[in-house]
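re: ur question from the group chat, yeah i did fold both. here u go
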Amino acid sequence: MITQDDNDDQEHLIKTSREERSNSHLADGAVNSIERCPSENQLDTRVLSPSENPKNHYFTVEPIFFLIFAAGTISDPVVVNLLLSKVCMATNATNDCDNPSPAVELQIQPIVADIQMFRTLLECAFPAFLSFFLGPWSDVNGRKPIILCSTFGIFISNLTWVLVSYIPDLPPIAVLVCSIPIALSGGLVTLYLGSFCYISDVTSIESRALRMGLLQVANFAGLVLGNLASAPLLKRVGYHGVFQVSTGLTFLALVYAALVLRETIHVSNDENRKKNVFDCELVADMLATCCKRRPYYTRASIFLIMMSVCLFLVSLNGEGSVMYLGVRERFMWTMEDFTMFNCYSIGMIGVGTFFGLWVSTMIKVPDMLSALLVLIIKMPTLIICAMTTQGHYFYVAATINMFGCCLGPLVRSYLSKIIPKEDLGKVFALTASAESLTPLAASPLYTYVYNSTITFLPGCVYYLSSVLNLVTTVLVSIVLMFHFRNPSSLQTLTSSVNS
């Protein structure tokens, strides 16, 4: 029970928080805009409002995600097929490496799974470290530079795959060189970080969950296009053509980011704009911002949400890392079968995400209540995937799980409503850093479980996901309890954020 002393303490924190912000803001009268007082380095930095930069309000980073995810989905199944072929030839498992028998696949799949695991580790380890610095850095120097840098790295990686596909005798482990540009540029980790901050800069609090959901829909549209095109392209143009198409799509994304995307952060001092990325003071400030005491259990909510998103992504990334290998082994699916299932699954998720967030926004369901419902609905889909012995039940699970990817937009929208905009980049940076570490845990964990149970329980990875989903449900329930324990807290915090 909350005592009167607790309430007095909460009110004191709100009053103190407002006083601090009133001392650090410069009002300019623009709707939704925020100006920050010059720091010790005398930075003149502020977030441009939608009214100052109207094009950003309607058409922003979505085309970049559509093109990049289409490119990645076109090439990813082809990469697995290429690795299976290369490992088969390297181990002399059979003379027909284009169509290996089930016994040969059982022999070479663990090696391919290990290579895929190392790819994931390489593409996530340094970006996780980098995102600690880039979030606070983007608050000062702008969102566009990190979006451009990550898009460029993905483009160079795809270009490297084109070159690798022309070297038939290349050892399988050598394909890891294709992951180096992504590792150095931050890849999807920093692209997501910059994009979430970008959308938060240019949208109102009321529309933010829907706009973040539309970003997910753009992802899904790219995934559907990639899945539809992958197998036909491989048959028509081979490995070389597939990687060339992927490279072309990422080049278009790079051109769009460079020429069309507009900056949301205004920094008048050009000398400070070039401030060193690896500034430990920025990281210290980020950690202090995220860990400082806040009213209405906001600090606890931040870290509980961070943990819940990380656990959700561990299961999502882990399942994705072994799914293609799993359905080949369990149901004897071909690449065409897998891409058709992916198209259906992603299409259902895209429709579910859009309509789920739209309905949630229209009827004003609390974000965390919607997130809890998403997790509850997800549980039976995992049990179905774990227990089924027939492939068509995967389609049933995909239908039930159509709202499964609403969780990310909902919790990020909730965070943006309880955190001041001047702190949002720092909190999102820490969240992105934590999220980027999830593949480092997910890929080895799920690869180990899959390799250990492939012969007697190949669906075991979904039992693991169901346990993680249960823990995530508990964490989200605690945040929701904070909200319902004091129903006026969110309204008070939102008013405080906008003051």
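okk and heres the other one u asked abt
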Amino acid sequence: MLPRHFLLALLLLVLSGSGRVVGQGGGDPRISVNVLSNRVALGEIGQLIIKVVNSDAQVPRTVEAPGLDVIFSGEQSSIKITNGVRSAETNYFYRFRGNSPGTYIIPAFEIRIENEPVMTSPVEITIYERERNEGGLDATKPYFGKLELTKEEFYVNEIVPFTLNAYVRGRGAISDVTQAKLENGSFVIKSFREVRTDGAEVGDVYYSSAVIPSTLFALKPGEYRLGPAEIGVRAVDPELGFGLPLRFRSTTLREMVTNTVNVTVKPLPDNAPTSFTGGVGVFEIAATASTTTVAVGDPISMEFFVSGIGNLRTMGAPEFGIPQTGIWKSYEANKELDDETDSDGFNKGKVKFSRVIIPEAKVDAIPSFLLSYFDPAKAEYVTLRTDPIPLTVTRDQGAESPAAMRFSPAEAESGTSPAADKPTPAFQDILHIRKGTPRWVARADGDSPGPVFYLVQALFLAAFCTVAGFGVARWSKAWRAGRLHRRTHPTYARAVKQLPRPGAPRREFYEAVSLALAQWKREHPRPAPEIVRAVDHLAERCANVLYSGMNEPDSPVSASETAECQAILHKLPRR
């Protein structure tokens, strides 16, 4: 008997050690590991439950399982009394999801019960993919989600509307939508902003639904699996608040995942015209010019309005139909598009492009601009053309050379101007002195002048003050105008001294540089060719900052930029 008792004691000692393995049944404390279902559809969430009776456990937050994502989601405790015996039960919940079809194992992992390590038993899970014709509506579930696309075969950059649908059993069962998420690195998915609530019967059971619409487009061709998406809703708890109005009922957070959808993305044809800028859909175009009367070198702001159903976000600005080198100078366009005016795949959207163009020669019209897009319904490229805009171009007054004095050839050869006429002297500076008897005149009456005299003097004084006032006003106005002209048209040296310092807005700095260059050109009408090239290069840089839509003119100018421009300006010759 002693060997038998010894072996039993040794067995109990081994079981009480640090390597206890618990299967789907157990001793005291009773432990069990279960799953709601061993078969879970691809993208859907399964649930693993660890039940611990009459004890507390410490469980890990995540479990490493190849091919599966296993995350702790919460715990629930309860007390039961059976035949007068009281027992405590705690359930620990894990959520798991598979990323591809197959059979996987949730391996045994360690939990701690009363500070002792215990190993759970492994669980086998099968992840399967639903058939394409298998409906996502399941009346056996209290809630579920569904992903629906308007088409499963489309082109790169083509806008595809889709919806995420959340279903909860019962009328008015959805109080709010808290989360909607669909991610895929090969697609650009528009954020979810709108929710529509509705309801439908599924297998004679009424479900409340929340429809969340959005759009997506693919970045590259290929075969892809979209989903599963995640949806979170606040659902009305049917067991609480019975008979009360909806706003007084208790709600519970329900998180659900949708099905997956396999899609095929086709590439765009290779025969794209040079005017194709990335738009896919059906569009219209209109163009306007800020002015139709300019001088050579003056900027014109062109605005293009493109409207239609399709992808406006990948579309670029229209371009000249024919190259305009030496005739027109064009800068990068600015694009204005927001979510309110974007197309949703069903309704038209509108985008605005702004481009600055400058005539470099005298022309009679702004030429046509071209915009090409791909029409997925016709599977071909379509080119839109704007109408030419009549234009009046005048001479550049600033380019005229200053007026010069001209002399006749005879005067030039003589080298002297014509002689002046010889004046005739007049000897009237010494007059005759009278020596006869003087003739005396009586003194005038010394009476004071009358009121008429003062009235006349007052009238003359008022007239004089009025004329003098008008004269002073005109002089003051002319003086202020001259002062303003000197301020707005300073000399080149003064313009260089007034350049803004580093940290000022780039627009303000380059406007001052452009003003200094213009003044230098007025002061030096015939500079050397190498100086002209340096000045034109700096002027081109100023124009790119001021007119190009690709720069940030309101950002602060750096010290290196100011130093570089000032170095060039200081090297230019001065008067």
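fwiw on the second one: Helices lie at 2-15, 409-414, 451-488, 492-497, 506-523, 529-547, 559-571. Confidence is low (pLDDT under 50) at residues 5-28, 399-414. idk if thats what u expected
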